[in-house]
Amino acid sequence: MLVAISTIGVEEKWVVKYLNNDHNHELLDDKEVQFLPAYRSIPIVDQSRIMLLSKAGCSISLIMRVLELEKEICTGNLPFLEKDIRNFIQSQSGIGKESDASDVLKLCKSLKDIDDAFKYEFTIDESNKLEHIIWAFGDSIRAYEAFGDVVVFDTTYRINRYDMPLGIWVGVDNHRNTILFGCVLLRDEKISSFTWALKTFLAFVEGKYPKTILTDQDPALKEAIAIKYLPFRWRLKSSEATTWSGAKQSSEAQKGSERLKEFSSSKMFRGLQEFRSYLLVMSHLEDEDVQKLNYEGLSEANH
């Protein structure tokens, strides 16, 4: 369509000069139209159900699945998306969340009063609402000093009313018992959020870098670890593991690194058994403590 100003009599008006009624792109079919913002809505009958499931502790994805099963429809055929449910829940429970955030900060302050070694930090957004919060108990920090050479940092959505990513730093002691080093709740999984979490935790442990850290494949987390203003010892080792080390790798470590690259590029993890195989490949690392990691135990601890 071409629109221009034309003088009609003594007045200037917008006039359509040219109209091409042929579409230059494929039109959406009936099944796709429902996903346009103008057509998406949560029926009133579903709103109360959503809030009930949310208060019961169901995650957004679980709520979607329950509604699909109840209505006996295929996945993706609801007239709304997960983000619509998330926005609806936030609009309905915003006051409660602010109250909960205030309670969390009060709890952290009281823990600090009881144990001076307890550490916590938080950030506030432009709306003066709690954005991120990280905490570590004194015993956890002392355990990190002794057993923090090899660390697993895992982030996952848990079944909670906020759907906030929970990040945990865990390791193992000499008896292969799982140790929790610290926790963080993030507003989102952006690079800036992970960067803040990593730097703050590092400050908690007075700058002691782990020799090896195992992470998932979250691209934002990888970028946060490798970001330019972090110390040079934080470098990406492979697509699934990150290693901090100021020392030069031995020839054995170099060979192990090649084995790890072949393993990483050939398959994805589909279960604990495959991850255990991954840990065996990780045996090339200079710190043999990696082999002590019992990921099944760590997974159970996370639950």
TrEMBL record:
Organism domain of life: Eukaryota
UniProt domain FAR1-related sequence 11-like HTH-like: residue ranges: 41-95
Pfam family, one: HTH_FAR1
InterPro entries: HTH_FAR1-11-like (IPR058778), MULE_transposase_dom (IPR018289)
Domain MULE transposase: 150-229
Name of the protein this chain belongs to: Uncharacterized protein
Source organism (scientific name): Trifolium subterraneum
